[in-house]
Write a structure and sequence with these properties.
Number of strands: 10
Radius of gyration: 16 Å
CATH topology: Rossmann fold
Number of domains: 1
Distance between the termini: 21 Å
Order of helices and strands: EEEEEEHEHEHEHEH
CATH architecture: 3-Layer(aba) Sandwich
Strand order of the largest sheet: 1-2-4-3-7-8-9-10
Strand content: 15-25%
Length: 224
């Protein structure tokens, strides 16, 4: 499992990042996006079986959440789980810009990169994939959903040719499995090929789905 000694906490251009540099001469960038009330430390539990060739970056979201942590959109009480494209777009655009500036500073080539996110972070993954398909390679959507406002990008088949990994729990009460299944239909309408893992858990990732995520990220084609 990833530990604090494996990573470094940095402040970069106004963002707080936890980073695991790679020793590879040609690393692949993986960006991890935490959920509502999470922070730059939340996603490392998912990295245990990932390739050391990955250069991994986890950013703290720009907005505070209640009662703790951070959010990818401004605080709107009572609507935590239902952000729209309009609300998430500034943070999504900011993340793309951040990755360009950060990778340039550490001399990592990342014209495309992989992303995975949990819950609200999964919604961010879907936004990034549809708005910036030329920049995003693999997409891991964990207990997430497709936010409203992406109809135009879905109609344009923005995800054509992409293999997208989706994992969800049938007992999830925060983002229901019904919403996850409806979101997968939207991803397929956008042209994506879905690799789906469903398990009898709540708002978390099961051990079997974690192994499936690791297989997906390790596969050159992203088919798992």
């Amino acid at each position: 499992m990833q530990t604090a000694t494996d990573t470094e906490l940095i402040n970069f251009n106004g963002w707080t990042l936890r980073v695991r540099p790679s020793r590879s001469s040609n690393p692949r960038l993986l960006v991890m996006i935490h959920g509502w009330t999470g922070d730059e430390n939340s996603m490392w539990v998912f990295t245990r079986g990932l390739s050391p060739d990955y250069w991994i970056v986890a950013s703290r979201a720009p907005h505070t959440a209640e009662p703790i942590g951070y959010s990818w959109r401004p605080l709107q009480p009572g609507t935590w789980g239902m952000p729209s494209l309009e609300q998430l777009y500034p943070a999504a655009e900011g993340l793309i810009r951040l990755m360009d500036e950060y990778t340039a500073s550490v001399k990592v080539e990342a014209p495309t990169f992989d992303v995975m996110g949990f819950s609200q972070g999964g919604a961010m993954v879907n936004v990034l994939g549809m708005l910036f398909p030329q920049r995003i390679h693999k997409m891991g959507v964990l207990a997430g959903f497709v936010p409203s406002g992406l109809d135009e990008h879905i109609a344009k088949k923005s995800l054509a040719g992409k293999n997208v990994f989706v994992a969800h729990g049938t007992k999830d009460e925060m983002v229901t499995v019904e919403r996850a299944r409806a979101s997968m239909q939207l991803l397929e309408q956008a042209g994506a090929n879905i690799i789906y893992c469903e398990d009898e858990v709540g708002h978390k990732l099961s051990k079997d789905c974690l192994r499936a995520l690791e297989a997906y990220l390790s596969s050159p084609s992203g088919r798992g």
